[in-house]
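Z., the sequence and structure:
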Amino acid sequence: MCRVVRDGGMIHIICPDYRGTYEGHYRIAWIPLFPKKLAKLYLKLRGKNPAYLQTLNYTTKPLIESYLHEIKFEQNIDLEIIDLNKKSFEERLVRRNLKFLNRFYFIYYMIIYLKNLFRQELSINLLIQVKKKTDI
């Protein structure tokens, strides 16, 4: 995606974060980054078909960010990574004149994580802006 997007273009990545405790495809409680051999047994015990498990890629926000940082250097591209979940939190604080609380995003995120424990999957929502491409 980074190679083919034009200068000034953007890439929007939305996907499940497998550090969560819910597997949305199977709609069941899940252990974060569940080892696939154990997950297969767990799915069988829950009466679910484990065949789909092999197609799951355990994505996490740090993993995607590390891939993007590698791409920046390999392809000599300047990328700006914007976490839209965090940006939304900050915008709500600005609307309520509570901008000074923006450093507490981690606490907010943990509250959301605990609220959705075993009930809803975490999501990654990143916007990547290709600021400029430079020739080697």
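The longest helix spans residues 61-74. The longest strand covers residues 122-133.

Let me know what you think.
H.
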